[in-house]
Design goal:
alpha/beta, Rossmann fold, seven-stranded parallel β-sheet, 10 helices, binds nicotinamide-adenine-dinucleotide
Length: 274
């Protein structure tokens, strides 16, 4: 159902890899709500060609960009303005990758070249994007930038290894840039801290399946789906949330504020103690 919440708005959506991606759902909903969008992803991620289907469904053009390259991001923001005919009203940062996680390296033994890559791809890329947009003056006043995060930025989840550090940096960049961009152009920058979600990035984490079920049992509303995360992103891009800035917003069905649930107590009670 469309309320035309984004009618007349232009935006860039990163990170749509396949139909499970959170960004994929955001793109579909942004289009449904009347926005004109440009899709982008790392050139290497486009080899599968899935993104072409999304581009066709959302009437969008694709501008490839490795989010760690300032040069490619400059091209992305320049081209997007040409294609969409003006400055951006919203940007979705939906990018995460840890070579340490991919190679199953434990936190106490991180490979530091990989660690730098994790931080660059998953966190500094947001700063680079914001900095490019700021310098090019590519965002409209009262624009909205949303980055996707995870609660491992605040609490320890051993399997999330260096991505936890990357998310902490990502959320800090939202606060810091949200101040500067807010002052200069009334552009707001926030992160949405999403439930575990069955996507390529999520499922690549060891033990993800068990953890997904754990979080689902703790949260009073259950895990938030990618679809509902997309709804939240749309509301954050809309004019209804103009005064929300520099926040980390939990979108997790209540998980972050729950100590323990009765379901978990019952499950623990069934585990034999001897
Ligand atoms: N899936 C979860 O459980 C979960 C939970 C909370 C937050 N998140 C976050 O949501 C965001 C989207 O992830 P997802 O779960 O939809 O998985 P996904 O694998 O579908 O998306 C991750 C995207 O990052 C892109 N990417 C990787 N390196 C890049 C680079 N150098 N330049 C540009 N793009 C690059 C990938 O191509 C991919 O499209 C990530 O920031 C992730 O950390 C995911």
């Amino acid at each position: 159902m469309s309320n035309n919440l984004l009618a007349g708005k232009r935006g860039i959506i990163t990170g749509a890899l396949d139909e499970n991606s959170i960004a994929w759902k955001v793109a579909l909903k942004a289009h449904e709500q009347g926005a004109k969008i440009v899709l982008t992803n790392a050139p290497i991620a486009m080899r599968m060609g899935e993104i072409n289907k999304l581009a066709a469904a959302t009437n969008a053009e694709i501008v490839p960009a490795d989010a760690t390259s300032v040069e490619e991001l400059t091209n992305l923001f320049t081209k997007s303005q040409e294609i969409l005919g003006g400055k951006m009203d919203f940007v979705l940062h939906s990018i995460g990758m840890s070579p340490n996680i991919r190679k199953n390296i434990p936190y106490t033994e991180l490979n530091y070249d990989f660690y730098n890559k994790s931080i660059d791809i998953s966190a500094l890329s947001l700063h680079k994007m914001l900095s490019v947009a700021y310098k090019l003056d590519a965002m409209n006043e009262w624009g909205s930038v949303v980055a996707l995060s995870y609660i491992a930025a605040q609490r320890t989840y051993p399997f999330y290894t260096d991505m936890a550090d990357a998310k902490a940096v990502l959320e800090s960049i939202c606060r810091s840039f949200g101040y500067h961009y807010g002052k200069a152009k009334h552009v707001r920058v926030n992160s949405i801290s999403q439930s575990p979600t069955k996507t390529t990035a999520g499922s690549g984490i060891k033990g993800f399946g068990d953890f997904y079920d754990y979080a689902d049992n703790i949260s009073p509303l259950g895990n938030a789906s990618a679809e509902s995360c997309a709804d939240y992103c749309i509301s954050m891009f809309s004019d209804l949330t103009r005064m929300v800035n520099m926040q980390n917003l939990y979108h997790d069905g209540g998980y972050s504020n729950t100590g323990v649930s009765m379901e978990m107590m019952e499950m623990l009670g069934k585990i034999p103690t001897e």
